[in-house]
Amino acid sequence: METRAETFDCGIVGGGLAGLCLAIQLADQGFSVMLFEKNQYPFHKVCGEYISMESYNFLHRLGLPFDSLKIPLINRLGISSEQGYMLEHVLEPGGFGISRHTLDHQLSLIAVQKGVVLQENSKVSDVRRSGGHYQITAASGVFHARIVCGSYGKYAPQFIDLPAKKTGANYIGVKYHVRISQPADRIELHNFRDGYCGISKVDGDKFCLCYLTSSKNLQESGKDINVMEERVLFNNPHLKRIFLGSEFVNKQPLVISNITFEKKATEADGVFLLGDAAGSITPLCGNGMSMGMHASLLLAGEIAKYLHNQQSREALSTHYHRAWEQAFGKRITAGYYLQNLFGKRLTTDLALRFLDKSPLLLNKLVALTHGEKF
Ligand SMILES: Cc1cc2nc3c(=O)[nH]c(=O)nc-3n(C[C@H](O)[C@H](O)[C@H](O)COP(=O)(O)OP(=O)(O)OC[C@H]3O[C@@H](n4cnc5c(N)ncnc54)[C@H](O)[C@@H]3O)c2cc1C
Description:
about 375 residues, alpha/beta, FAD/NAD(P)-binding domain, D-Amino Acid Oxidase, Chain A, domain 2, 2 domains, nine-stranded mixed β-sheet, eight-stranded mixed β-sheet, 11 helices, binds flavin-adenine dinucleotide
């Protein structure tokens, strides 16, 4: 166990996209940053791995080497109903595909290069106020910071006390990497009973095949993923073709459970929250990653003003909360309503047929779930 006498300007709990991006920006401005990640890079994550174009310039500015990573640009969308009806749409401005294995690893390398002190394999178990600072207890030791940010993802650690919320439907997420002959510039979303599955190209020669469904579907299939895929997903002829025509890079999928989608809070117990820790959007809207990155930009700006003594802690808290609500409040609500349109046999089929004839309305719906470039 390490103990450092030094007080860091900022301690960040969780090294996913939101935490890594925040760490890089603060280190870039000369602040001392310690980032805690309970895993070791590189590692896989359940995620559809499609990033909306709004964050392309931001990642470029942070130094992500787009050219050498050969990242596919995606500007066509296909959505199918369980009955096999396929809606085709041009995605404006579209997005790009990159595996979380590659993206998080690349960002961790940039963070270290910028001077972030990275603690891998270091789960944070406690954060508490100690004098005017915060004491962070992690697997690797006890550390101190002036500000602490929580970017620990969807599952709040025990030391974070969030107000209890009514929990909605409970989902599971399943992800594979596959090799398949599909266009690299097209993302497809295929509906099935109580769920949908996306497929799109990522870096390298792989596609990301990732779905979200109710835990009920899994329970009813004897908790066996393969049985559920054959019983439920294969009712959509497109999914049956994809699953049977793919070479699976990993035979066992990556699975996460207990997923809910809701706004949470931008601060809890004096810890500033960002990314999924502050609130998550349904993957159908494809933009959780961009929201996490955008939130890191908003928070980095406010923290810098505080650390330069240009605003009080209270002002930092108020300004970040206001900026977060303005940037994402509507989007999370839109995502919630859209989620209800999908994964329903008849409603989804009718909605897709109607939207196919109303491209302007479809453009509006897509725009509701995307933010401005930042
Ligand atoms: C099925 C599914 C598909 C999705 N598809 C897409 C998509 O295609 N496009 C998109 O933009 N978004 C998608 N999302 C959403 C996206 O994955 C999240 O919004 C995004 O990963 C949030 O990033 P984050 O940094 O907040 O959290 P995460 O990426 O989850 O990172 C949190 C990190 O914190 C670490 N951690 C947690 N607790 C601790 C602790 N106590 N101490 C130290 N470390 C800790 C974890 O190990 C993890 O690395 C999808 C989500 C799901 C569930």
